[in-house]
Amino acid sequence: MTLAENNHGYFEIAREKANIGFEHFRRQYFDPEQPVIIENAGADWPAIKSWSEAYIRERLSKEPSAKTASLWYWMQRDTLRDDYSTPLIINSLLDLPDVFPRSDVMRIWIHCKGNVSSWHYDANLVNVFNAQVSGQKEWLLVSPQTPVDCYPFINFGIMGYGDEKTMRNKIHTRFMLNQGDLLYLPPLWFHKVISHGDENISLNWIFTKKETSISSKALVRELERYHLQQYLSMHRFKWVRNLFEKTNANIPGYLRWKWRYPEMIKTPLKPRRFQLTRRTFNELGVLAKVIRHANKIQPYIDGLKPVKKFK
């Protein structure tokens, strides 16, 4: 049974060699939005031997365009280019006219052994290429066709169920990403990531397609979530607009409702007003689950490692 035919249960993630061709990658993985590991794509990078938290902070502090976010470092394309070789398929995709242009397309993540990134999907419908530079990361993925229950209106899964229960009756996989390997993570795939190795460093490239033909339950939710954001931010009553803006400004950046591009991605789906009302009630309907597991939230937040700001 192929992944496309599977509607529940475990699947083995696809694996390809480092010399995978662009057209093959686009046809097999990018267009149908299916994950794949490209083995040894960065095995010969100088970064494999040279990168450490101290090294990265020193080098990025001298790069005017480099920035810090809540949990990672931002870089523009080809920053620190002597330390790695951007794979051909990534350069080809970033240059496509049907990809939204953005200045910051690269991120560096630094974690210690045992760090856990809880269940979530990435906002702004981003495609992610994740290169494992040091250590290993254990990845758990769930398809957007069989989504994980999320906290109301945000992209993080409700904590407290345990991984086996979270993945039950879901299209899912689990694997270890080794040093030098490159993972392609398509839009809206739920993931949980566990760091192995004393110092764990990953390099990302991210971008958003202008159009997709792939529909999923998670895409429906995401489109309705963003249309709700647009409705509230442009509400005819000023107090509603102000309340929304203040609420959004006082939560961590990775949880905010924000579509960063001038237009929404084109999809076959067109949310209507009654669907936004239904979405609101559906989101509020999980509050009982949230309250039941509320004691899991603060310990997780306390365990996050914020990125140190540049001096």
Textual characterization of the structure:
The chain is α+β, with helices and mostly antiparallel strands. The protein has a single domain, classed as Cupin (Jelly Rolls). The protein is built from ten helices and eleven strands. The longest helix has 17 residues, at 217-233.
What order do the helices and strands come in, and which of them pair?
Elements: E1 9-10, E2 14-16, H1 22-30, E3 36-38, H2 47-50, H3 53-60, E4 67-68, E5 73-76, H4 88-94, E6 104-112, E7 116-120, E8 127-142, H5 163-167, E9 171-177, E10 182-185, E11 190-207, H6 217-233, H7 238-249, H8 273-284, H9 287-292, H10 297-303
Parallel strand pairs: 1-9, 2-3
Antiparallel strand pairs: 3-10, 4-5, 5-6, 6-11, 7-11, 8-9, 8-10, 8-11
Helix pairs in contact: 6-8
Key descriptive features of the protein:
Jelly Rolls; alpha+beta; 311 residues; 28% helix
The secondary-structure class comes to alpha+beta
Strand/helix succession: EEHEHHEEHEEEHEEEHHHHH
CATH topology: the name is Jelly Rolls
CATH architecture: Sandwich
In total, how many domains does the architecture comprise? Answer: 1
Summarize the structure.
The protein has 311 residues and is α+β, with helices and mostly antiparallel strands. The chain has helices spanning 22-30, 47-50, 53-60, 88-94, 163-167, 217-233, 238-249, 273-284, 287-292, 297-303, and strands at 9-10, 14-16, 36-38, 67-68, 73-76, 104-112, 116-120, 127-142, 171-177, 182-185, 190-207. The protein is built from ten helices and eleven strands.
